[in-house]
Input
Amino acid sequence: MSFNRLLRDSLKRDPTGSIVIFSLLLAFWLFISGCADWQHWLTGIPLVAFLTIFWNQLFSDERAKTKITWRQSKLFLRYFIFLLVEIVKANFAVALIVLSPKMNISPGLIVLKVTLEKDMPKAIYANSITMTPGTITVDLDGDRMLIHGMTREHAFGVRSWYMYDIMKDIEEAGRID
Amino acid sequence: MLIVIRDILVVIFLLGGFFFLAVGIVGLIRLPDLFNRLHALGKCDTLGSGLIILAMLLIYPGVTNIAKLLLMGALMFIINPVMTHLITKTAYVRGTEMVKGSFTVSTYYEEEGEFLAGEGEE
Output
């Protein structure tokens, strides 16, 4: 039967991945439904198993798997906390500019070189630029990043931003292993 | 006593959220061009709705509510910058005019670690 073969293939392809995704989805289902009586288990487990098998068929590429080391996740936690602080600072900066009687803006575009290699750190870094003081990532093409700044200081400040160094560290930590 | 402190915190977070959302709208009206308006909207919405979700987390107990609210916060955190980026990119590609006096500088070919003191052609 073809379903059996599907199951066997997907389990053979990536057993640990299947188990991780299965437990994540099941935990999600139990959190959202809010109670864990036998009806919920009965509905949840078959559906989650079906989704897991389906997922394995969709993403069967070995090279696309993300590997996260322990050091990387610690660094990323640090990055995230700094990001929250930066977001609060960004909002106060924007509020100051918007609410002052004459708005001191000197907007413009700046092109930067970003030497991050992997796509994921690049995307996260671009998003954090968008969320922080007076800068928006307009375009990202290879290692070329186009940024719109609200004032000249904000736009030029991105070049020597300390978050970039943390992101470089995260990438370095991934490369050793 | 604990409930009073919690309620005060909730009020502070809610008012902060409303303040930042209001700043976003004021920015939308006051700022001169599309890119600058998105600065106000894209940033203030993140913190505004984040603070409101934080206030909700304090009032509503229960695992389900907390899980749903955290999920909402995470989605807001991801969707907001991505949509801001998409709108600006579309506007840039279509050649939307920027406000008069905007500068355009490229620091792409500059050596890494060498920072000019903020000059550039207008």
